[in-house]
Design a protein that fits this description.
By secondary structure, this protein is of the alpha+beta class. Among the domains are: about 90 residues, no CATH class; about 55 residues. The protein is built from 16 helices and 6 strands. The strands form 2 sheets. Strands 5-4-3-6 form a 4-stranded antiparallel β-sheet. Strands 1-2 form a two-stranded antiparallel ribbon. A hairpin with a 2-residue loop joins β3 and β4. The longest helix has about 55 residues. The chain is extended and about 110 Å long. About 30% of the residues are buried.
């Protein structure tokens, strides 16, 4: 009988697993995250919390002095996960009997607290979009080029101010997803924003990567269409329910060696991602590996933290490895064979390529001859007019050189 430690390991199988998911940016893609996709920005904008008091103070500071304030707020731009912004004050001076009113805008630097809150939120939205791009195999270069300009007029209501700023970051989120519109649009569901489509597909791709590790029919499911996978989720009562059923099936019907093999393969892959190629077979070896990390550097600290996570999973199978005198690589050979995982966006790329091919075929069949005739006629006309103009120039020259009688 496998203990609870192994069950922990199975539930968190793989570096990109459903259990571990994509975390960060106030967002988690996990077994329970599909339903929370539409609320994703709300979690991110939680980083605006500390800004509320600072903005309230900022608003109260406006409007003092001889000028009458007509509007106050924050303006700037968001791009590459950074915010460049200033505080603005729109004002008017009454002109009196013989002068018209004078209007203008004063700009000032934002407080460090407000700047930091805006930067944290922008970085969170950008980081989330980058994570989705990585999962879906997309380049993030187009994300870096997205720039959103904004101008938010603030009021005395902290709630309204936060809503206004949240709308700015929601626009940024939508624009980031929009940079992949040509790939995402074919998958867009009714009433769904492009950013929500982007997040939903990232969840499904993460799910596919994880379930593919179980091999067999689960690899076929992983390579099924988005519609087919979502139909399965529907039959199961949601993605969380489907994951629970899958884990239960693996635990009850895969052999002990297969289950150990799944864990061993996942751990070995995790070590390889850290640049560690050592084939570990005992607790002592993993202990020594953890102790050897250089925590004086950021990279060393990151590796150390990742190894602590791996250690928990290794502990659940270490007894089996030592008892059977097997290393991770040897145990991994018993894991089910998996299929090469397709990217769910490949269908969209294929459809685009097919549409282009069909267009050019239609063009050749329906317009190719016409265009060739048109070009031939245009060329003939061009030659005719060129000859006509040349003849006219010669006649004019003769008229100038031959004396009239």
């Amino acid at each position: 009988m496998l203990g609870s430690g192994f069950m922990y390991g199975l539930a968190n199988l793989g570096a990109g697993t459903i259990g571990a998911g994509l975390s960060g940016a106030g967002y988690m893609i996990s077994a329970g995250s599909l339903a929370s996709i539409t609320a994703g920005l709300g979690a991110i904008v939680g980083t605006l919390g500390p800004i509320a008091l600072a903005i309230a103070v900022l608003v109260k500071a406006f409007g003092r002095g001889p000028k009458q304030t007509t509007g106050t707020g924050i303006q700037g731009s968001i791009g590459g996960g950074d915010t460049t912004a200033q505080q603005f004050t729109d004002w008017v001076k009454k002109g009196g009997w013989f002068r018209s009113d004078k209007r203008g805008t004063d700009l000032a630097t934002l407080s460090a607290e407000v700047e930091q809150s805006l930067d944290r939120t922008a970085a969170a939205v950008f980081s989330q979009a980058n994570q989705f791009a990585d999962v879906l195999g997309l380049s993030n270069e187009s994300l870096k080029r997205v720039l959103v300009n904004f101008r938010v007029t603030l009021t005395d209501s902290e709630e309204e101010n936060e809503k206004a700023l949240a709308a700015v970051f929601e626009q940024y989120r939508q624009e980031l997803a929009g940079s992949f519109a040509h790939l995402l649009s074919p998958f867009r569901a009714a009433g769904e924003t492009l950013a929500d489509t982007y997040a939903r597909l990232a969840v499904i791709q993460t799910f596919a990567r994880s379930i593919n590790e179980f091999g067999g029919i689960f690899s076929r499911i992983a390579n099924a269409s988005v519609a087919a996978q979502e139909e399965l989720f529907s039959f199961a009562g949601g993605i969380e329910a489907f994951v629970r059923k899958t884990q239960s099936f693996v635990q009850n019907f895969y052999s002990q060696e297969e289950q150990i093999g799944l864990q061993a393969r996942s751990i070995a892959q995790g070590l390889q991602k850290l640049g560690i190629t050592q084939d570990i077979s005992t607790r002592q070896q993993l202990h020594a590996l953890v102790e050897s990390q250089d925590i004086s550097t950021t990279r060393g600290r990151e590796t150390f933290n990742a190894l602590l996570d791996i250690a928990q999973r290794f502990a659940s199978i270490s007894g089996f490895l030592e008892e059977n005198k097997r290393s991770l690589a040897e145990a991994a050979r018993a894991a089910p064979t998996t299929e090469t995982l397709k990217n769910i966006l490949d269908a969209s790329r294929a459809e685009g390529a097919q549409a282009t091919t069909e267009f050019y075929q239609w063009y050749r069949e329906n317009w190719g001859g016409y265009v060739e005739d048109f070009d031939a006629q245009a060329y003939a006309s061009e030659q005719f007019y060129a000859a006509y103009i040349k003849d006219a120039e010669l006649r004019a020259k003769l008229d100038r050189t031959v004396p009239r009688r």
